[in-house]
Amino acid sequence: MAGAVTSIKDIDSSSPIVTARNVTKIYKRGSEPGLIGRILGRSEPPTVHAVDSVSLEISSGEIVGLAGSSGSGKSTLLHLLSGLEQPTAGTVSFQGTDLTTLSARERTRHRLENIGIVFQRFHLLDSLSARANVALPLVELGVPKSERRKRATELLERIGLEDRITHRPGELSGGEQQRVAIARALITDPALVIADEPTGELDTETGRTILEEFKQVAENRTIVLASHDQETLEICDRVIQLRDGAIANRRTQEIRP
Amino acid sequence: MVTGLGVGLATSTTVYDDDVDYWIVPETDSPESPLIATDNIQFSSVHETNDRIHGYDGVDATTPVLAQVLRIESSDTAEYILVVGVINTPELDRVVGVDSDLLTPQDPYYANGEYNGEWTGEVVLSDGAADILATSPGESVAVAGNNTFTVAAIDNQSSSTGDIPTALVQLSELQQITGAAEYDQADQFVVSTNSPSVQNKLEGVYPQSSVQTRGEMTANQVAESDLSLALALTALVVSLSIGTLFVVTTSGLEIVADQQQLAVLSAMGLSIKSQLQLVGTQTVVLTGLGGLIGTIGGLAGIRLINTIAIRTITTEPIATSHPVFIVYGIGVALVVGLLSLPVLLLTARRVSGGVP
């Protein structure tokens, strides 16, 4: 199954890797009224447009930032682009495949093979070592144990954690845990890396270092990262500003060498 | 621990396992076992009656039985022992699990209706009694005061009284030292025969007596074993029920608490099937480990119960422990894990797939 993973080398850089067309995500606040609630005249719960008619294209190799204040829809848009959630309206395509037509199981497989996710709060499994955490997605892909260990060790060495390989998350600093999370996101060689506030739990200096390492180890992968921190967004080729779930403006930054 | 008690109870009271076919016992409402029911209504003129029963057609062997719990002192220690007085006759073989052939035949101290025959002063000890008294053949022991007896033999094959330490003596000599010689008393008769027609005659030997067959004895014993078996089965059912509810509740709460972790696994691309395998494996391994720890704790509890029991109410352990209990405990725990699995997998299925 490892062979099914789309390598960035296979992607045509001229075509968009992710395309969103009029994507809308509406959440309901509270539960639907039941039969008795309807009889008693209870009204439908109010709705929130977390993402409102967003259209965008992300090309291969791009680093795109999603900016905006808290509640602006950054995280929800990341979830929609990665297939973690389904839009209420509109379509999200990944390399031409409409994710909205896939079943939950197919979308899970799609994430395993094509998407790497870095969370704000690391979300490492406490009972596993750094190497086992990094290698976890390879278990699902059926990669042999020796190969898993080899690839996870190499990646951890590249990210400067060669002396932390057997440590558990509780024995690592916040910066080290986020490095492990980045390595876990990259272990399957994904075409797209999603990062939601990757430096949100780190101090400024550590965050800056982690970002540089992230960009370096991700090589020329497509990265979409959400942050409200301007310094974090400086690594992006392009920043999309969100306000109340809609795109407020696009600004393109100078691409750094 | 409860299983150990049940097995202990089921295996210890086996005092009926003698090679006899009938027991004549006084009619009584007491639930006590005929053999260890000391200080109950007794039969009188038992030597004469025994001769009469022996004369019945089909009777191979017969003896009155007088049972008393008496203090026996050896050179090293003193202990209360079940002392049983019998008349050794050919083909009697064993009484209360001790070989009666090791006594001088025909109770020589009782001669011609008088207690003035040859005093043998011999006692045959069961293995357990010999261990407790720390004595060996040829040594003297004092029974119920200053009555000196000599250990004629130790029956290493003794087993039918379970773990009850037993001493076999001549009937008349036991009567003499316990005051039962006045009316030539005994508690019961054991009659060895293969002839069912003897039963009617035996029932007429004493008024207000009852004759119990081996089958009835066995039924009695089985009833007691059933009680113990029921105790062990109840322990099994209770442990399965309580264990399953406990594991379902605690693991269920754990799964709900781990909802975030399951969501992360889902976001990383781990299928629901893999997540359920993870939950299932975790549940079975944890319950297995719990079973191992619980069983070790149970064995420690059995040891504690036996220690307390021996120091307070008994002379022998009341609960049994065996290495196979560890396997049994782990097995029960694994069954608990398997019984809990469906609910836990449904819970995991319901909470998985969210967004971290």
Automatic annotation (TrEMBL), chain A:
CDD domains per record: ABC_MJ0796_LolCDE_FtsE
UniProt keyword Nucleotide-binding, yes or no: yes
Gene Ontology CC: one annotated term: membrane protein complex
Residue ranges occupied by any ABC transporter domain in the UniProt entry: 18-255
InterPro entries per record: AAA+_ATPase (IPR003593), ABC_transporter-like_ATP-bd (IPR003439), ABC_transporter-like_CS (IPR017871), ABC_transpr_LolD-like (IPR015854), MacB-like_ATP-bd (IPR017911), P-loop_NTPase (IPR027417)
Record's keyword terms, sorted: ATP-binding, Nucleotide-binding, Transport
Record bears the keyword ATP-binding: yes
Gene3D superfamilies registered for this protein in UniProt: P-loop containing nucleotide triphosphate hydrolases
Any GO MF annotation of the entry: ATP hydrolysis activity
PANTHER family reported in the protein's UniProt record: ABC TRANSPORTER ABCH.1 (PTHR24220:SF86), IMPORT ATP-BINDING PROTEIN (PTHR24220)
Protein's recorded name: Putative ABC transport system ATP-binding protein
Automatic annotation (TrEMBL), chain B:
Keywords of this entry: Cell membrane, Membrane, Transmembrane, Transmembrane helix
Superkingdom per UniProt: Archaea
Entry annotated with the keyword Cell membrane: yes
GO CC, one annotated term: plasma membrane protein complex
The keyword Transmembrane helix is annotated on this UniProt entry: yes
Annotated ranges, domain ABC3 transporter permease C-terminal: 235-350
Subcellular location: Cell membrane
Predominant cellular place of this UniProt entry's protein: membrane
Pfam family, any one: FtsX
Membrane topology, as annotated: Multi-pass membrane protein
Transmembrane segments annotated in the record for this chain: 229-257, 278-305, 325-346
Gene Ontology biological process: lipoprotein localization to outer membrane
Xref: PANTHER family: LIPOPROTEIN-RELEASING SYSTEM TRANSMEMBRANE PROTEIN LOLE
Protein name according to UniProt: Putative ABC transport system permease protein
Taxonomic path: Archaea, Methanobacteriati, Methanobacteriota, Stenosarchaea group, Halobacteria
